[in-house]
Amino acid sequence: MLPYRKCVAIILKKGNLIFVAERLDTKNAWQLPQGGVDGDESYLEAARRELLEETGISSIEFLDKTRKLYKYDFPQYSQDQIMKKYGALKYQGQELCFTLFEFAGNDSEVNLNYNTQEFRRWKWESVEKILDSIVDFKYKCYRAAFSELNLLR
């Protein structure tokens, strides 16, 4: 069995809303910014780096992170895309630490072209609407992390 990729997911709050972005490669696939942890990088360091790379956002204040790591398996269509792009599947899925930040900047700071573009557009959304629209294979992770971080009403 393949291992899980060590990753972070970034929950960026602005009041009662959360930052989500639509994947560039899949229309109507909205998610939190997320990415892999490099080498001996801490989850917090990886979260700050990934958020900056994917959104251009650096004006943030750390609030909390999950104590538990949440796993999901890649569905077959994702495995097929990975195989097509890289020729091999190195991971069964991802193991996520969810990090929680408060946005301390202005919306004009968001730059989806800051590094390599991964998202087509972004918005501020309620936790409930995020859970209603997240892809099914990530739903349990998102719900459990939102619950652990006291974001569910």
Total strands: 8
Characterize the largest beta sheet: strand count, sense, and whether it forms a barrel: 8 strands, mixed
* Strand-residue proportion: 25-35%
CA(first)-CA(last) distance = 37 Å
Fraction of residues in H or I helices: 25-40%
Net shape? globular
Low-confidence stretches: none
User: Overall pLDDT, averaged?
Assistant: 93
Specify the CATH architecture: Alpha-Beta Complex
How many domains? The number is: 1
Q: Figure out the total of helices.
A: 4
CATH superfamily: Nucleoside Triphosphate Pyrophosphohydrolase
Protein structure class: alpha+beta
Order of helices and strands: EEEEHEEHEEHH
Whole-number radius of gyration? 15 Å
Characterization of the model:
- This protein has four helices and eight strands, in the order ββββαββαββαα.
- By secondary structure, it is an alpha+beta fold.
- The protein has a single domain, classed as Nucleoside Triphosphate Pyrophosphohydrolase, CATH 3.90.79.10.
- Strands 1, 2, 3, 4, 5, 6, 7 and 8 form an eight-stranded mixed beta sheet that branches.
- It is globular.
- The mean pLDDT is 93.
